[in-house]
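User: Some background: our group keeps a shared notebook of sequences we're curious about, and every so often someone picks one and asks for a predicted structure to add to the entry. Today it's my turn. The entry only has the sequence so far, pasted here. Could you supply the structure so I can complete it?
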Amino acid sequence: MKGEPDFLQNLRDEMGGGRQWLDRAVVIAYAVLAGLAVVGFTLLADAAIDLYSRLRSGWWWAPLIWTPALTALIVWTIRRWAPGAVGSGVPQVLTALAPETPLSERSRFVSLKLSAAKVLGVSGGLLAGLSVGRQGPSVQVAAGVMLHARRWLSPASGISDRELLVAGGAAGIAAAFNTPLGGIVFAIEELSRRLQDRSSGLMLAAIVVAGLVAVSAFGNLSYFGRVRADALSWWSLLAPGALVALTCGLLGGLLSRLMLASFTGLPDRFCAYRRKRPVTFAALCGLVVAVIAVVSDGAAVGVGHEHTKDLLDQAADPGATHQPLVFTGLKFVASWLSAWAGVPGGIFGPSLSLGAGVGADVAWLLNSPHGAALIALGMCGFLAAVTQTPITAMIIVMEMTDGHSMVLSLMACALLASLVSRMISRPLYSTMSLLMMRSLRDRTDPAPQPEPLGR
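Assistant: Of course. Here's the predicted structure to add to the notebook entry:
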């Protein structure tokens, strides 16, 4: 029948192009390098967290000096040498992906130099004791590595810079969370909705390879262990789960809105002072975070994964004590101020920790026996509310907690929290990207010429 594929001809075309296979090998090799970059980033960040913990445990007052001083140094260094490394990293990748961004300006947002600066900046922020994450920055780090593959690809490869950026950004999520499926969903939901048919399979393979590098390095284990949910029913989680979703939607939307306001700047004295003296403002933010670290005994700073694990362990122990609202409130303020300070750092990790706090608070408030399940729902809901990517949030939390038996509950929580968040705040990453593109246009567009005088 006319139009049917010719198997033999297609096989000869597939096997006969040596350069085509070399291009594929280059992409896979860079996917491995991207995964290794995120693995190295993870190890360096963990070492920074450990060093800060030892400093704080040795001298309880040390953060009051160490945190503001190092925060100011990081902001001064980044602003001077790598301004494109500020913030999460996801908006920078989205800006580089935008068709409106000139090719000559793409290196302002994604490059090997910025990847290195991001790794050092985020690790420095964790060493300072700020409430920042490394997962979002891993998107920019891996995207910078993958984009570097362009110089080794042939012009006829059919692989565009856009596809390399999408693959790199998604590979960063896959490797950072040890969740290859989460990386693929993130590529579809957040980074791109139109991968080219010709090379989409190769790009997905690159994402999976980068994720498998992390699995090889850290083991194929769920990050937060297994959430026991075999005996749960929809009715047992309906009221507490809905309260968790609504609370996460409200708080996540508020945090997103505050971060957007901090990024754009408001006509108030605080933002005016930040514009005038950014390094001093960063030191003041660091001082407040240091006070929070002292008050919370270090629980409300850093990425927050250790405290989340503690909450899950306490949920399994009926005799464990819980201080409601304390951790959630302090972590919320610390995360906002850390972002407002202007240091490189992501919000994925702190969002998971905040959501775990919300879930634990609701379980305490309602005296629910399903604390671990509510914590997992809170992690999913808060991440979905801040990023407004509910499917990605559900997949990431499901893989990190081995919560496959909770898939419907996780999805419902993510959708409801994301819906509430959309009523409060614009999408965080895409809005930041639009603001970056607007700033780029203002910088690159020539000044308007005066109108000629009439005759």
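Suggested note for the entry: The longest helix spans residues 18-58. The two ends are 71 Å apart (CA to CA).
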